[in-house]
């Protein structure tokens, strides 16, 4: 399986790359900074240097050509302002989906955010509200496309070691989840047809990860 990950140098993406490459899959991560290529190589991936805020869908489609799965895991990051929340968390997500359609890559997984569907009531933080609205707009854009899409909304992210047990459902309520477990779920979703056309929430739980995927 060939998997292309937007936001390839992110904390979840690097974990995901290591898991997929360890299982013998080819993984390509889109990165803005060529200096990050070595970090992807260290976990078994390849880097494609592309700035999703500066290229067109055709350039991204060239990288996606021949892929089996496209995963959008990019984000503007916690230090960014309102403008980049829109250009990355919404705009780059839509561009990546455009490129997937052009390249004929049907399986498309997008990492969203818990609370994207209730941005106005969740927080008084103006920048975080813009972020959630951008994530919601990206979800809505994806839902309108002829792709085999899944949106995964993780809860609050931690760097704790993965437990291998999760709660993965259409609605989970608030909670936290380790980045290790998010990456493992994303790897499993690549080949879980029951997740197609669904928006799933993910937090820590008591169900073994493999069983949680089977339960969908």
UniProtKB/TrEMBL annotation:
<protein>
    <submittedName>
        <fullName>Putative NADH-flavin reductase</fullName>
    </submittedName>
</protein>
<dbReference type="Pfam" id="PF13460">
    <property type="entry name" value="NAD_binding_10"/>
</dbReference>
<dbReference type="InterPro" id="IPR036291">
    <property type="entry name" value="NAD(P)-bd_dom_sf"/>
</dbReference>
<feature type="domain" description="NAD(P)-binding">
    <location>
        <begin position="7"/>
        <end position="193"/>
    </location>
</feature>
<dbReference type="InterPro" id="IPR016040">
    <property type="entry name" value="NAD(P)-bd_dom"/>
</dbReference>
């Amino acid at each position: 399986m060939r998997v292309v990950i937007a936001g390839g140098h992110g904390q979840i993406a690097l974990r995901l790359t290591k898991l997929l490459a360890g299982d013998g899959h080819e993984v390509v991560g889109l990165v803005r900074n060529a200096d990050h290529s070595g970090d992807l190589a260290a976990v078994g991936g390849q880097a494609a240097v592309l700035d999703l805020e500066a290229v067109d869908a055709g350039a991204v489609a060239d990288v996606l050509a021949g892929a089996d799965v496209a995963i959008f895991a990019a984000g503007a990051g916690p230090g960014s302002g309102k403008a980049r929340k829109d250009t990355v968390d919404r705009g780059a997500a839509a561009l990546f989906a455009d490129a997937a359609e052009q390249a004929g890559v049907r399986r498309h997984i997008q990492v969203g955010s818990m609370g994207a569907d209730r941005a106005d009531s969740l927080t008084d933080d103006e920048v975080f509200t813009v972020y959630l609205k951008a994530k919601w707009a990206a979800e809505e854009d994806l839902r309108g496309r002829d792709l085999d899409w899944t949106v995964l909304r993780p809860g609050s992210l931690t760097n704790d070691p993965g437990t291998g047990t999760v709660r993965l459902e259409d609605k989970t309520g608030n909670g936290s989840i380790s980045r290790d477990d998010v990456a493992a779920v994303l790897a499993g979703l690549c080949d879980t047809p029951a997740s197609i056309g669904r928006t799933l929430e993910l937090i820590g739980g008591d169900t073994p990860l493999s069983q949680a995927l089977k339960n969908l």
